[in-house]
């Protein structure tokens, strides 16, 4: 099933911009005002996670505020969160923990249902743990607490494997898959798994998160929050990304804008089902405005579009803009060279070694 439709458009606002991984003091940001501004532009779908501390708490308060609820009915919104990941190296996919996490999220958003709940970074746990957590989410879906069940993680091929096994095991598919850093100007590996996700996996919609590769594909490099430099990109990739950004900026273009245009345009071009959704960052009104205007450059209004200011009207790939950018796209990818389509290990060797030691101790 696909939780998105013409009322939601093709864009989701991600909540990681209000996490300590990204910024130093998320609680100082005007979250309610920023969300209201996003809604005024036509954004109706929002994604967060308890792991993006304190994003879920801040967003939950915003979406529970009378200033918002008086203007936007709950039925007009798509609220998505995750479960299973506790910290950078701690996961709990046990059925009681999954249920408790979802119930806590429901309370934080003051709602009696969530539109999508994902298992967070599913590649970090065993297949049995993953299937057990998904079974619990299916049960909560049957209870009416969740409208759609999803899985999220980094490697698209792994997510496709899980999706196929879920369908074979339970006789029903996961509704939504969210992957990140795999449909952008540096890495387009998601293309190779779309057919299997939609086909054998029966997935309703695929979400493309981190179109700027968690801040790597912009001038200035990766963001540093309270938790320090968490980005897994190796030094060589960082250096080439910085070189590409300088080259783009020297031509009077913004690396962030170009990267987002590529991610949105390329996904719209290759996603034959036309269901793919891009998750935008934007922890401030200024960032949201910039990102929305960039998306509107690459996606033109559909035939029945009425309001130019509403992002939901922009659903069709603008072939002229895409073609005009192709020389810049090629220039960036030429500079990236051997790092094009590079994928880091997830989980990495350090995490696996730590888990091995913990098992030996127990």
Automatic annotation (TrEMBL):
The record places domain NADP-dependent oxidoreductase at 11-300
Which PANTHER family does the UniProt entry name for this protein?
GH17980P-RELATED (PTHR42686:SF1)
Protein name per the record? NADP-dependent oxidoreductase domain-containing protein
What molecular functions are annotated in GO for this chain? D-arabinose 1-dehydrogenase [NAD(P)+] activity
Listed under GO cellular component are:
cytosol
Which UniProt key words apply to this protein?
Answer: Oxidoreductase
Species of provenance = Orbilia javanica
Instruction: Kindly list the biological process annotations in GO that this record carries.
Output: dehydro-D-arabinono-1,4-lactone biosynthetic process
The highest taxon in the source lineage is Eukaryota
